[in-house]
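seq as requested:
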Amino acid sequence: MINVALLSKWHVHAKDYAKEASENKDITISVVWDENRERGEQWAQELGVPFEADLENVFSDSSIHGVIVTTPTTAHTEIITAAARHGKHIFTEKVLAPTVKECDEIFSAVEEAGVQLMVSLPRLTERFYLYAQKILDEGCLGNLTSVRCRVAHHGAVPTEESRHGWLPGQFFNKEEAGGGALIDLGAHPIYLSNRLGGKVKAVTARLQQTNGHDVDDNAVVIVEFESGALGTIETGFLSYGCPDQLELYGTEGTLLIENREPRELISDRVEKDGLIMSDQLPKALPSAMEQWVAAITKNTDPTITKEDIRSLTLMNEAAALSHKEGRRVELSEIGKSYSAITK
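struct tokens:
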């Protein structure tokens, strides 16, 4: 049994991870810590577990085997490296850290401690992505020429109750969140595009602050892949009723996916194209948390990799620099180049 501590309810997905952990037969939630004591005590009471105000006491408790981190993003590096030094396995909300330099610090601490680290990049385990990857790998689209991926919602559209909309106010605090729509919701189209398009050469980005927020609430990134293909990453907190969209275009085919359901394949390389039936899709992979548990208990290799995790932050950092300086940014300008990524 893996005894875990829940570290902070800052992120909107904290409750989701707590629910998944509580439903996993190999995990027991043992304690809650939160930088906001009132919030943490209430959460601990809801879960029927103790609250611990001193994080060092959590880390020093030998009965705690792992931590689930949903703290402010900018606190990830300090908390995750400390957890690793104390021999705790780590499951964390995306992104791992705001900068590539911090990611590398975390990787070093994790490797030295010999613990398992998992970042939740959930759509890499879903059937629609696995189908898209299969279609590409089998050459059904010919040479990939363009990728478009959009994930957006209306969480920052002001309401009578809140000028921030239904998202919590802390999501718009740059000192805590480290960024806005792109670093959070935009993670999904970034890591999907990274997998499907391959290694990225350069980006040009525009991060808008539409409603006077401290962070971006609407963003677009134009991606240049090393293969010569182009990509468009779109995200935001201002789009009501917006469907998730993934479009792959190649020299011999097109694949259209909406709301995580493949809709249509048009290709000269398949016997029968057109509408896609659900029985044509691959089986989903185990979730990020299930893969984390398997890595701890069975020493298996997760399908969500160090390169997926690091490249997500690399793209965010390059996009932020592109917006700030109003120019095209090559990824080799940020931290180490792709070729230097250690496996």
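The CA atoms of residues 200 and 225 lie 4 Å apart.
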